[in-house]
């Protein structure tokens, strides 16, 4: 069995559902809660996993929270003085 995401034009939903009902022995429809909340969930998940792998492999460096906010504060100070 294979799982697929299908996008259906609003005006074709009923025809699609009729097709599915006529072939219900071969098709199961279930809603993916992740996609309901975020249509790009799986793309974001893949990107996050790649970023995590890059950090673990040393391809990119993760900056500490303190360093990041220190850089932001320094940048804001340079903007404020102009």
Structure, described:
It is built from four helices and no strands. By secondary structure, it is an all-alpha fold. It is elongated. It starts with 12 loop residues before the first helix and ends with a helix. The model has no long low-confidence stretch (mean pLDDT 91).
Q: Total strand count, please?
A: 0
Indicate the structural class. Answer: mainly alpha
Would you list the SSEs in sequence order as H and E?
HHHH
Low-confidence stretches: none
List its traits.
82 residues; mainly alpha; 4 helices
Describe the structure concisely for a colleague.
It contains 4 helices and no strands. The protein is mainly alpha-helical and 82 residues long. The termini are far apart.
Give the topology, please.
Elements: H1 13-22, H2 33-37, H3 41-57, H4 65-80
């Amino acid at each position: 069995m294979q799982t697929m995401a299908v996008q259906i034009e609003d005006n074709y939903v009923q025809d699609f559902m009729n097709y599915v009902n006529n072939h219900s022995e071969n098709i199961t429809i279930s809603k993916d809660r992740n996609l309901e909340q975020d249509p790009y969930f799986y793309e974001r998940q893949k990107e996050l996993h790649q970023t995590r792998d890059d950090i673990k492999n040393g391809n990119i460096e993760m900056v500490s929270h303190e360093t990041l906010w220190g850089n932001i504060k320094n940048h804001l100070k340079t903007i404020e003085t102009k």
